[in-house]
Amino acid sequence: MISGAGYFQPLKSAGNYLLWMALLALLVLAGGYCAYTMEHEGHHITGMNNSIVWGLPHVFAISLILAASGALNGATLSSVFGNKTYSPYARLSVVLSICLLIGGLIVLVLDLGRPDRLAVALTTYNFKSIFSWNIFLYTGFIAVGVLYLATMLEKSLQRFTQTMGVVALIWRIVLTTGTGSIFGFLVGRSALDSAILAPLFIALSLVMGSAVLALVMTWAGRWQSQTVSARTQHSFVRLLLWCVLAVLYFSIVHHLTNLYVAEHQSDEHNVLKGAFAVLFWFSHLALLGIVAALAFALKQGEGYLSTMKWHAVCAVSLIACTMILYAVIIGSQSTPQLLFPDKTITASTFGDGGIGPYLPSVWEWGLGIGGTALSLLLFGVVLRVLPITSTTQS
Amino acid sequence: MTTSVNNNSGGDQPQGSGNAQLARRRFLQKLGLMGAVAASYTLLEVQAKTAASSDKRWGLFIDTSKCSSGCDACVRGCNEEHGIDAGKDEHTRAQWIRKIDLTDNLTGAESSVPVMCQHCDSAPCVDVCPTGASFKRADGVVLVNKHTCIGCRYCMMACPYKARSFIHENLTDQKPSAPRGKGTVESCTLCVHRIDSDQNQQPACAVSCTDEAHSAIVFGDLNDPDSDISKKLKTVGGSQIRADLSLNTGVRYHGL
What is the CATH number of the domain that holds B162? Predict the structure, then answer.
């Protein structure tokens, strides 16, 4: 067993804990109201339409789901790869992972045209659909996470922690592959029809999960009047550096190979020079900046960054990866679908041949932020109830 | 079909415990009998309709040389048949069929084509639907089961032809033959209610096109070598939109 039984405890009453929880609860309520309004009025009040069918809620949902998978990094490194640095954060890592996934799934469900038919989705399956498989992968991930946590919490089960860690690792890789594959095998959308989206999504999940975990570790540590040790931060800096490099690698390969294929020229034009150019270039340049900052920190100060700089690195990584997801999810839909490769569309009543219009509405922002707040609220509640925060530094 | 059960035992409730048991047994027997009758009725009702047969493959042949740029008779016919309001925002309203004007990049030749659900044999929308609400009948007609569609829009993402519409707002004055619903996805049904009827009617778009004296749309059985559509395809040929995707569409175009 990696994490010793004696030095974990539920979060004790902290100065601004209740204030944070109240704020998150308000955001959850606002998100619920937005979801109710969308369901009651119909999706015409959103920015989504019959060209951009998956909008901002999907960006939030996929971001949360990917971050959930990646947030398990702490537990995986501890119990599978035996890195003791992460042992004090293993439990926190699992709980955060489950909470993020729940928030993501809630956003996904509430964005359905018929969220009241959730029971249909959970009982009627088409096993040719990756979406169906993902329902099992998501619900299974929560179950695996709970069992994994149980092996950490219950002394008599601690001999199974490593085994459950391996199961959870495999499960989350399959889950993220499945999530990437939702987008990767759409023959009708040339901007998405690429198997490289699955490893790109895995790399994104590693960055987003690590960044969220790092921020939450500091957040929870403050309430315990503790700071993340220099050794842990050094390890995190290296982890984040490799994960960001992986995102850049897969993204560059994706776009370079697309540029080589004539069929994808208009897709790439839309992303690199068109409506989504700002998002694309900002996110990639930001990640390049992160690489430079982390490499410099490792070389000069053995990975040490001031708390403010470390938070900034994590926040920018999160924002940049979310922007990449936005460009992938929304950008790919706004690119005109290629119906007639050798012809130019001169007129259409459905915007064929043009860039699909999309401006996220306040309802979509509300739903997405509400789902994110729900994840953090759940996490905050579990933090108070279960002994998942360490009282000693690694 | 829904069944309702009358719980009223008729006002002759026995007072003793033995009589009460007897009454309860009789009641349960009656309940079982009613259930059996209801189930039989349901089965009979389903069996009364002819199931779609794989002997047929319904399809459309569209002769673009007969389709003129300014004409949208097929679109109007479809909208009227299915109660689709064409006056709303073009990006959020349902568009089961739309007209697209094209210019050939090499020759500059102009053409105008109606585009609707292509009723693919290997339909991507059917493959991706998580609940199986998107389905293909044995006769090749691709439909959406409005009772199990959860409105996830994955089929819209998967459709290469942008042929599916999500219903963004409340609907009123629906046609009994074309039930629709907010929050679900829909597309061309090939006027399945007409082709399944005893009169073997043609889809509304084909009828409207003929009424307009264009006769650019021919409906029929692709499996029947003697059908008009098969003869047309044999004599003048027909191509598929995005034939490179190998979806074996039920809608074929001449002159593309």
Answer: 3.30.70.20
User: Which of A51, A54, A114, A123 to probe by mutation at the B interface, max B CB count within 10 Å?
Assistant: A114
Domain annotation covers residue B181? yes
Please report which residue ranges of B83-173 form alpha helices under DSSP H.
Answer: 124-128, 154-158
Q: Kindly report the average pLDDT of chain B as a whole number.
A: 86
Q: Is B32 on the interface with A (CB under 8 A)?
A: no
Q: What pLDDT is recorded for position B11?
A: 36
The CB-based long-range contact list for A181-186 (8 Å cut-off, 24+ gap) reads: A181/A130, A182/A130, A182/A131, A182/A134, A182/B154, A183/A328, A183/A329, A183/A332, A185/A130, A186/B124, A186/B128, A186/B157, A186/B158
Q: How buried is residue A150: exposed, middle or buried, by Cβ count under 10 Å (0-12/13-18/19+)?
A: middle
At residue A345, the 3 state secondary structure works out as strand
Domain-embedded: residue B239: yes
- Per-residue pLDDT of B151-179, as tens digits, reads 999 999 999 999 999 999 999 888 998 99
**Whole-angstrom distance, CA of residue A322 vs CA of residue A63:** 6
Rounded Cα distance, B159 and A166, in Å: 38
**Is the residue at B171 inside a domain?**
yes
Best CA proximity match to B215, nearest among B177, B254, B176: B254
3-state DSSP call for residue B215?
Answer: coil
Question: Are residues A348 and B100, on separate chains, in Cβ contact within 8 Å?
Answer: yes
Half-sphere exposure of A327 (CA within 13 A, CB side): 27
Q: What is the pLDDT of residue A222?
A: 76
User: For chain A, which domains are there?
Assistant: 8-336+362-390 (1.20.1630.10)
Q: Between residues B123 and A187, which one has the greater pLDDT?
A: B123
- Domain span at B244: 58-254
Long-range Cβ pairs for the range B40-47 (8 Å, 24+): B41/B1, B42/B1, B45/B1
Is the pLDDT reported for residue A26 higher than 70? Answer: yes
Q: Which of A230, A166, A172, A231 is nearest to A204 (CA)?
A: A172
Integer CA distances (angstroms), B127 to A111, A130, A262, B132, in order: 21, 9, 27, 8
State the pLDDT at residue B39: 54
Q: Is the pLDDT assigned to residue B121 strictly greater than 70? A: yes
**Which residues of chain B make contact with A189, given a CB cutoff of 8 A?**
157, 160
Distance, CA of B25 to CA of B22 (rounded, Å) = 5
| Interface membership of B107 toward A (CB under 8 Å) | no
Interchain contact, B167 vs A340, CB within 8 Å: no
**Closest C-alpha among A361, A387, A374 to residue A46:** A361
Q: Whole-angstrom Cα distance, residue A97 to residue A139?
A: 13
Residue B26: inside a domain: no
Q: Please state, in angstroms and rounded to a whole number, the distance separating the CA atoms of residues A377 and A371.
A: 10
- For residue B9, what pLDDT band results from cuts at 50, 70 and 90? very low
Count: domains in chain B: 1
From residue B201, give the alpha-carbon distance in Å to each of B83, B114, B119, B131, B223: 18, 20, 18, 31, 18
Q: How far apart are CA B118 and CA A387, in angstroms?
A: 58
Q: Kindly report the number of other CB atoms within 10 A of residue A257's CB atom.
A: 12
